[in-house]
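Side project, low priority. Logging it here so it doesn't get lost.
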Amino acid sequence: MSIVKIFSDSTSDLPQGWKDTYDIGIVPLYVVFDNGTFKDGVEITPEEVYRRVAAGGALPKTAAPSPADFIAAFQPAISSGHDIVYISLSSSLSSTYQNALLAAGEFPEGRVHVVDSETLCGGIALLVMKATRAAAKGESAANIAAMITEARNRVESEFVVDTLDYLYMGGRCSGMQNFIGSLLKIRPVLRLVDGAIVPVARIRGKKEKAVEQMLHHALANAADMDKELLIIAHTLAEEDAKILETALRAQTGVEEIAVIHAGCVIGSHCGPATVGLMYMR
């Protein structure tokens, strides 16, 4: 049986320690400004993205890796005798999944398995870590892919954004919604549903109220949580992340709670001071 190597893309926002320890392959997406194109997390940082947006007032575009990018990333592992399971950003949000499928078709059948995570950020990270543990136990690539395809339906992901400005500039809310939201200080709570981002609550007032709403929803589901791993992700929102971590450690019984930093692609769409939590049922 071939050794299985797990791959994902940069929107999984895996901590470097996890990538190094478990030899997880990462294929970066692109962040595109008028004066250049940069690999997410390799050639540009989230802080640099926010600085550029603040200075120029325009959001970057984000772009999927090309099939050629995936082929270049997968080839060394295939040549070393590995089979591959690649877990992608939601296909509802990007062409990343489709491009990975095209690349997989360039290798012998069964060597590269591509799974649509139907989520993003820490939601992908949960699936990647589950796949990594299965690979370490000697599971085949086909079995791991099937397991992740089932498990993705049990991932819960919610985010609170601090401002509608980035969603507006990215075309994800109208000018009137942005104006009214800013005037009334509305903080949306966003959830991944069937691979797409949908608003589930609009909290008026301080951001802390929206974070509390997200926490309340998670705690209401504490009995059904997979206790192995819960992830808190944020973009320069350390204080909010710490509040969530403290409450969840005290009230859920989850074995490991990891706090991760969301990368450039997530930050380009949600903006700084976004915080979210992800767990599996």
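Brief comment: The two ends are 31 Å apart (CA to CA).
Revisit when time allows.
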